[in-house]
Amino acid sequence: MSAGRANHRPSSTPPLFLVDELAERVLLDGPEGRHAAAVKRIRVGEVVQLGDGQGAVARAEAVAVGKDTVELAVLSREVVPAPDLRITLAQALVKGDRGELAVETATEAGVDAIVPWRAARCVARWEAGPRGDKALSRWRSTVREAAKQARRAWVPPVAEPADTARLARHPGPVLVLHESAEEVLRAEHLPAEGDVLLVVGPEGGITEDELSVLVEAGARVVRLGPEVLRASTAAAVALGAIGGLTRRWCERPHVPPAS
Q: Which CATH number is correct for 85-251, 2.30.300.10, 3.40.50.1820, 3.40.1280.10, 3.40.50.300?
């Protein structure tokens, strides 16, 4: 392992690496260690962020670097609380990499949890078995990497795929994005706290039967503006609007850069 101290490389935002537990000393190995050592080229003396994906975040200094490993000493730590108003995204399955784009941008925009939705008009089906498991694993991996890129203290969980009946049983408010809605999303549609389910349909649209089931269960159908958004971008745009209409952005604490 290298013991020499490299010249400090200025960085406005230290990279974030995810670990299972934040101990006083942390060894990054496996894929995370290879990424830190070979891709990010972390050097001894460099300060990075560590997180457990469950709100705990630490600043840590690299004390030894190997070919595929980085050993870190924790300098300080904090626990970032979850937001008072949580947004769970029910994202309809989208064919190809557009589904991964949808959950990636939603994660970067601050979504708190994701439920893959088997809507009637989804081209992708995610049937039970190895192919469905592989698709779900890709979404979860995409979300994890997007959370690291966005320096998020919380990594949004990605649930097992759900049908419309399960969405209708959501215990909190449900907002369904639909281009034909008469109401535009407004602040009064959003509570100060709790868990809101945001429903985004597939490229072929939400069926009348699905809308009826959700509305009869208490869902509100809203639109974001005059434009028709794609299934892969609607959630990120909606989360941006929600961030501006509520205190969600104000609640997110700033993690100071390394000095």
A: 3.40.1280.10
